[in-house]
Automatic annotation (TrEMBL):
Gene Ontology molecular function: DNA-binding transcription factor activity; sequence-specific DNA binding
Protein name according to UniProt: LysR family transcriptional regulator
InterPro entries per UniProt: LysR-type_TF_proteobact-type, LysR_HTH_N, LysR_subst-bd, WH-like_DNA-bd_sf, WH_DNA-bd_sf
Keywords attached to this entry: DNA-binding, Transcription, Transcription regulation
Species of provenance: Methyloceanibacter methanicus
One Pfam family it belongs to: LysR_substrate
Length: 300
């Protein structure tokens, strides 16, 4: 490692990260237990050491510059690593206990979360993980400590991090394609069927983003449960929209138009501000962040 190339102080980096996540110097100072002038000096020193402007100041509000946004992605990884080092050094991960409730869509809960739950049990065996499989935004009423969402929350008491931009596409089972044939193009949907949500217009909107314009007669099967929708498609009832990470974990499912560019959708990891004071919630949050940032691959 080229140690001489590391030209910053960790306390300065921590001050930048807290300010960026809280959205203000006062918020960053509060969560770090510093005075606002001290935190401001640390951020200014980091800007000077790196030779870049990290924040634009508009009155009392702050906005990250392009350099700040780029740095934030790397600094968050450092922050997560520092937290895990602290836990490992003190042996705290083995003593963290209690219930942490995580909500995610039923598809994510079934196909993606089991490996990360297993990993959490290995590093913190006294933790109790309760998965709330639902498409509802349940963390609003504090029915969950952590939520995995595809829309950014607007509630001021929530901490949200964009952890991934996921791909999605139109899939069909090998059984369906053998029976009905593969459409030659997105315009060639005569005689084909979709399995979608009960909100048909919502699915039409997603298909339009892929350049697909279905007709009314293409829709025959719908459900308000994404897991049921995926299973119906797996058994050959029709074509279905799904995240690439989930499709890759489902044998027998193929992209209908493999050369078509996928649509993208965000994945947000959301928690209440207790994240900063609860060791068990912070541990689960950090592990989930790493897991989702890696596209759903189990942590090492």
């Amino acid at each position: 490692m080229n140690w001489k190339a590391i030209s910053f102080d960790w306390n300065q980096v921590r001050a930048f990260l807290a300010t960026a996540e809280e959205g203000s110097f006062s918020g960053g100072a509060r969560v770090l237990g510093l005075t606002q002038p001290t935190l401001g000096r640390q951020v200014a020193a980091l800007e000077q050491d790196l030779g870049v402007l990290l924040f634009e100041r508009f009155g009392r509000s702050l906005e990250l510059t392009p350099s700040g946004l780029e740095l934030l992605e790397h600094v968050r990884v450092m922050g997560d690593a520092a937290h895990r080092v602290s836990l490992a050094a003190s042996g705290q991960s083995q003593t963290i206990e209690g219930v942490v409730r995580v909500t995610a869509t039923n598809v994510f809960a079934v196909y993606l979360l089991p490996p990360v739950i297993e990993h959490l049990h290995e590093i913190a065996p006294k933790l109790e993980i309760d998965i709330v499989a639902s498409n509802e935004l349940r963390d609003r009423r504090r029915e969950a400590d952590i939520a995995i969402r595809h829309v950014r929350p607007v509630e001021p008491d929530l901490v949200a991090r964009l952890v991934n931009e996921s791909d999605g596409s139109l899939y069909a089972s090998q059984r369906y394609l053998k029976r009905y044939g593969r459409p030659r193009s997105p315009a060639d949907l005569t005689g084909h069927y979709f399995v979608g949500s009960s909100n048909q217009q919502e699915m039409v909107n997603y298909l339009t983003r892929l350049g697909i314009s279905p007709a009314r007669e293409n829709f025959r099967f719908g459900t308000d449960c994404a897991l049921v929708m995926w299973e119906m498609a797996r058994q050959g009832l029709g074509m279905c929209l799904m995240a690439t990470t989930v499709a890759a974990r489902t044998p027998g499912m193929e992209p209908v138009f493999p050369d078509l560019a996928p649509m993208t959708f965000p994945t947000w990891l959301v928690a209440h501000r207790e994240l900063y004071t609860s060791r068990r919630i912070r541990l689960v949050y950090d592990v989930l962040a790493e897991f989702l940032s890696n596209g759903g691959d189990a942590p090492a």
